Amino acid sequence: METLDQEARAIVVTDERPSATTQPSLREGIAFGCDYNPEQWDRAVWREDVALMREAGVDLVALNIFGWSHIEPRPGEYDFDGLDEIIGLLHEAGIRINLGTGTSSAPPWLTHRHPEILPEAADGTTRFPGGRQAWCPSSAVFRRYALALVEKVAERYGQHPAVALWHVSNELGCHNALCYDDESAEAFRGWLRARYGTIERLNSAWGTSFWSQTYSAFEEILPPRLTLSSRNPGQVLDFHRFSSDALLDHYRAETAVLRRHSDVPVTTNFMVTAHIRNLDYWTWAPEMDVVANDHYLDHRLAEPAAELSFASDLTRGLAGGEPWLLMEQSTGSVNWQPHNLAKAPGQLTRNSLSHVARGADAICFFQWRASLQGSEKFHSALVPHAGTDSDLWREVVDLSRTLDRLDELAGTRVQADVALLFSWENWWAADGESRPTHAVDYLSQVHAMHASLTRSGHTVDVVRPGASLEGYGLVVVPSLYLVRDEEARVLSDFAEAGGHVVVTFFSGIVDEEDRVRPGGYPGAFRDLLGVSVEEFAPVLPGQVLTLASGRSASLWSERTRARGAEVLDSFADGPSAGRPAITRRALPGGGAAWYIATHLDAADLDGVLREAAAGAGVVPIGDPREPGLEVVRRANEERSYLFLINHTDHAIDHPATGIDIVSGDPVEGAAHVPAGFVSVIREESAA
Length: 687
Description:
Strand order of the largest sheet: 5-4-3-2-1-9-8-7-6
Low-confidence stretches: 1-25
Helix content: 25-40%
Distance between the termini: 64 Å
CATH topology of the largest domain: TIM Barrel
CATH architecture of the largest domain: Alpha-Beta Barrel
Number of helices: 18
Strand content: 15-25%
Largest sheet: 9 strands, parallel
Number of strands: 29
CATH superfamily of the largest domain: Glycosidases
């Protein structure tokens, strides 16, 4: 195989690298930014765009996200003329740059020269160029070319005074996270050798005694390509783990190059959202200098705005409670859903300030100017096809001015006293091919718990299993099917020390190897909860289950026995009639452990979680009687800020005293928030 040096041609550059100077701060208030793709536009448009950015208050611009074919138009030949010019224009305008490495999508010359880098799907078919991310994460050839590009970009701009942030690739794993080709197979085998050491240990972990799957050597192992039957669950789970690690290794490789030339913070844009699940961001987050996320409302969900709140809380959890950056969102509709709905007037501002309320210190958009061609030409942008004489542009400018007024709260932290456990590993395992019912999926259960807590006025920290629970009054554990012994022990220790816990059905069932814990469900949590489940008894979609109290439920029931827990409610009908449906075990230290053995209707779930929160002494910050008013507090040691976001069609009054920094009006006793509006109250004293 040829080396890059053997293939390289003369390197073409236009002038000397810009001189070094002090790097600007990444956080100067609440940043307002966008992706900019100047390569889509004639250079005559660039100066107009920069002038409009200044008018709109844009102060952070992502560049070179998909720039590879423009700065390396032929192998080994580099042309930075255009990128130099636009960086210079933005710098002159005082706009900071989030500079991409440009490696997200390979240029056509690379896939033409090296078709072996193309990804392979689980059915053995190749995925070809023409879209994006047409490369296999395990490809050594792709890695070599990508790092050569990063080296050139970092050499040239590593000390540029405008560069405030490095942006590795783009949405890593959005399309190509799982690659099943022979090179991935070899890398997977190496990963398994490192994890298990011996083939005997792997056979035990995967339960290969079932269906005559026992391996005699690592060389026999393949990725979990499509089979005639369901696939080995342990193999599928480990392939997800390997695939996440493979892309993380690519991120580390690009970052290492950047760090040789620059001390500017490095990150990549996560995709904490309902439809992307292939990367375990708990393992990625410690590698980020600052956590960033892309989020788009998903109208395939029943409650898109509720999912936005969950995604923001989870992103904040990944950031360890520190502020984070919203790297992408849309001003209006996207282009990739079955029904791409425009945002209602005011919704852009409400969505943006929901992210800020939940910890974002930057609000950025894809993209600056709506494309005229390509797959995303109908994706909304800051400058729409209609231009600046449009309601959308006026709302963009208004949002920018509002964010300017919120600059003083940058760096503050969100206050929460309820924790919710979430795990990507559990998502992969719990939603496996062979499970009790496909009518129940993990993320829907997580969303239901988070939405219920939010409706009840609580602010929720989303944390990984095994994380410290110190400082929380209540911890909610939705359908945590896979849990390690030490993770379960953290939860038990929390409850025994006086904490309150709510665990829902299909939790504690297997260990980290997807091995069922014998002795009765819910396995790892059986002693903590004081219950034992003999059998799952799910029901068909549409079937209503009634509890003795009159509560309604669906989808799932269990044949449960109380083993020290108090029975609070029972199944009145269905396959588990007469069995406990909701239990509570009081612990000697004042803590309590609740178990919910079914999928409760939303109103009934709200009631149960409110009762659990009250028992834990957790007082809601919002008013459960006004579930359409989003209430969140950010604070530091000196000040606190109360966000009041009215998602309803009527005005709402909420207790508050201070100054509304959005309107500038004083607030005495109660804030009056008109329908669809947002107030941010600088409170008189820190909460």
